[in-house]
Every structure is written in C-alpha cells, then in structure tokens.
Design brief:
Layout: H1 6-10, H2 21-34, H3 46-61, H4 64-84, H5 91-117, H6 123-146, H7 152-171, H8 182-199, H9 205-251
Length: about 250
Amino acid sequence: MTGVPASAAGGSSGAHGATGAAAAADGARSEVSGSAPGPGNGGKSARGGKIAAVAVNQASVWNVANLLTMLRLVLVPGFVVLMLANGGYDPAWRSLAWAAFAVAMITDLFDGHLARTYNLVTDFGKIADPIADKAIMGAALICLSALGDLPWWVTAVILGRELGITLLRFLVIRYGVIPASRGGKLKTLVQGVAVGMYVLALTGWLATLRFWVMAAAVVLTVVTGLDYVRQAIVLRRQGIAERAAALEEKEA
C-alpha cells in the first residue's frame, strides 16, 4: 500500500483512519494545517506535523508496484550486457539475457495491476512505467538488429509505432485519454513472446516458428497503431465539438 496509516503519521484520532495513500496523505495535511501545542495533540508542533506529512509522501513512492518498475529499469543495462557478451552469439549468455527479458516482461504484467488494485498509483509510476516498457523492448530490438538476427525495418516499425502512439496520447490529452484496447494488450503479449524467441538461440522448426510469431507481432503493431490514430481523431473531434457547444451556451 502507498503511504502509512494516519495514526502512524501523526498520532491522530480514529477520525483520520481512512484507508489508502490519498486518505493518509490528506489526513497528514489536515493535521499540519490545524495542529497546535496543547493537551489535545500531546504538545506536537506544526513543524512535527509537516515532517509527518513529508514522510507519508515519501513513503508513497516506495511501494511494491514502483519497486517492480524500478527493477525493470535496472534490468535494461543488465540485459544489454548479457545479450552482447562473448560476441552476442553464445547460447549460454543469450539464455541469461532471455531470463532477464522474461523477468522484465512478467513484472510489466503485475506492476500496473497492483497499482490499480491496491491504490498504489503515484506520479513516479505514471512516468517511469511506460519508460521502462519502452526501454526493455527497445534495447532487445536494437540488440537483435545490431547482431543481424532481426531486420532493422522490423525494429523501426515497432519502435516507431510505440513512440508515435505515446506522442499522440500527449497531443490529445486535453480532449481525453485514449484507453488501452484489447488489441493493444494482445500486441504487447505477442511482441514479448516474439522478441523473447529471437533472444534465445533457437534452431530448426523453432526458428521458423519465431519468424511467424514476429510476423504476427508486426501486423498487430501496425493494425493497433492505426486504430489508436482513429481513436485520437474521434476524440479530438468530440472534444472540439463539446468546447464549441459549451462556448455557445455560455454566450447565450
């Protein structure tokens, strides 16, 4: 959970016992604004209340969801080192690189779910989580292309789509949020499987299979990218229409 109970933050009464990080932080802030030395608060000063509030805000960042995100960020340079070790073609080192990549992809499945389920969403997580996602996938694709295992155009299509959609989300954020679709989630899963298969030193029919899995990933990447563009256009039009209607109503 993010934050600590209000009772631990400043020794307040049960009225401040609301659960969740936001409630704990609000309770601490209310103690700061209304605390004064006296019998009712055990002689605690406003300065003590401010320190408690700061402690709550700091503790809210160090939750399990954010720790998983940080782990993914740390795994990125480790993955690159393992991937390129001994010339980049040693099956043993490639297997270790695959293990690092697999851990990063698995934690990606859990950190967002934990943050939403247990109210662990923080500003740090909102920024670091997508960065960690793009970093591990980008590192894997670039390493594979640099080693000649994957055509550069595949890397360009996947990374171009990811960066382009991220930029598109920021451009239309004033009109609303483009939600993650089922197609987008399927794309992420297939991409992870395909890249993971390429990281491993596979031969025979498994090497053929990974080619088709990567082909499916590229198709899903393009199709879902176009769908996000369509959603962005619709969202922008709706936002402009709503603003115009609100302006006309205000002038009337």
